[in-house]
Amino acid sequence: GGLMGLAVGFGLAQLLNVAVPALPVRTPLGYAALAVVASALSGLVAGVLPALRAARLDPVEALRAE
User: Angle formed by the axes of helices 2-19 and 29-55, to 10°?
Assistant: First the structure.
């Protein structure tokens, strides 16, 4: 998801650069890398924390609650 967002952002920046040549549009590589790292970390946190919580449950009790 982060890489797709980055690709869309780069594409829109290039499109804006073509549409309005007088407007200086740049996407610093450091910011792009930071955005990918932030999206990866948030994805890991959103996936790992619920999985850890679920792993601590007793399987029989978890199924009974469903």
Answer: 150
Torsion of the alpha carbons at 12, 17, 19 and 22, rounded to the nearest 10: 150
> pLDDT tens string for the chain (66 positions)?
888 989 999 999 999 999 999 999 888 999 999 999 999 999 999 999 999 998 999 888 878 876
d(C-alpha 49, C-alpha 20), whole Å: 45
Q: Which positions ≥6 away from 62 have C-beta within 8 Å? A: 54
Residue type, 2: G
**Six-digit token pair at 15?**
């499109």
